[in-house]
Amino acid sequence: MIPIITSLQNPTIKNLVKLRQRRHRDKQGYFLIDGKHALYLALKNNFPVETIFLRRTDSLSIHGQAGNLSYMGSDKILPLAQKQEIQLQPVSQAVFQKIGYGDNPDGILGLAPYMERQNLLCQPNQSLMLQGLYIITEDLEKPGNLGAILRSADGASVTGIIVCNSRTDIYNPNMVRASRGACFTVPIAQANTSEVIEWLNKNHVQILTTFPTATRPYFEVDMCSATAIVVGNEHHGLTDVWHDKASLVIPVCIPMMGQLNSLNVAQTATIFMFEAVRQRKSYLDHQQN
């Protein structure tokens, strides 16, 4: 029988609480995966989860690492965890309330090391020329927005997301939760703006910049070739360097019919992504007929 952690002063529990802060995540190289949806996708995509903490309830029983397990909502998670030989650690209700996310934690939490992300900037040119669709975020502040963009990116099956000069980090618990696990399904790279612009110029990728002052509607631009959609800071938008240094730049806007002049950054990125999906599907359908 695996012993249940019941003390809030347990060193492991105290350390999990610390990992809610970026400085401790960066120092230790570990982060938390909250919730069954995110944790399932992490396991499904072979992200190296080390330990899974389970809230003890009347429906939970763990008899040895490879014994019989039951946990409400874990019918997909626990078989994968057993197959990957991940440590399972039950904790009391009070302990999980301490380490879980928000007011209603759903009773399951993963601990995983930072993982070196795929270097999107080293992909072969042929892939870019044929079908590359990239989302680039610059100077985002809110982890929830990055998570929402990742969730949409999974739905649109984008080639990858490049995070530039971000004020949040890609291991923030709020980002992981908001992405619903898409942070484990969508390739993510991190770089500064100058590096990304140089890479886009070198590979002749067209760049759609989102400026409220632009006059060309986004749906008038052909997105069937290699395309990068760039969205900026929630308050200040994109920096001028995108127009000063980038080559194939097309400033575009979303026509606004009301009294406001812009949408939330995640909503904007989502609209652009699915316009690209619509255009590419229409192009393929036309080719097949």
How would you describe this structure to a colleague?
- With 289 residues, the chain is α/β, with parallel strands linked by helices.
- The chain has 2 domains: 11-113, 2-Layer Sandwich (60s Ribosomal Protein L30, Chain: A); 120-288, SPOUT methyltransferase, trefoil knot domain (Alpha/beta knot).
- 36% of the residues lie in helices and 19% in strands.
- The chain has 11 helices and 12 strands.
- The chain has helices at 11-18, 22-28, 36-44, 77-83, 93-99, 125-131, 143-156, 173-178, 193-202, 241-245, 265-288, and strands at 30-34, 51-55, 61-62, 69-70, 87-91, 108-113, 133-138, 160-164, 188-191, 206-210, 227-231, 249-252.
- It is elongated, with a radius of gyration of 21 Å.
- The N and C termini lie far apart (62 Å).
- Residues 63-72 have low confidence and may be disordered.
CATH class of the largest domain: Alpha Beta
The radius of gyration is 21 Å
Number of domains: 2
Average the pLDDT over all residues and give the rounded result. 87
Helical content stands at 25-40%
Main pleated-sheet profile: 6 strands, parallel
**CATH architecture call of the largest domain:** 3-Layer(aba) Sandwich
What is the name of the CATH superfamily of the largest domain? SPOUT methyltransferase, trefoil knot domain
Number of helices: 11
- Tell me the distance between the termini: 62 Å
Note poorly predicted spans.
63-72
Strand order of the largest sheet: 9-8-7-11-10-12
Q: Based on helices, strands and strand pairing, what is the structural class? A: alpha/beta
Order of helices and strands: HHEHEEEHEHEHEHEHEHEEHEH
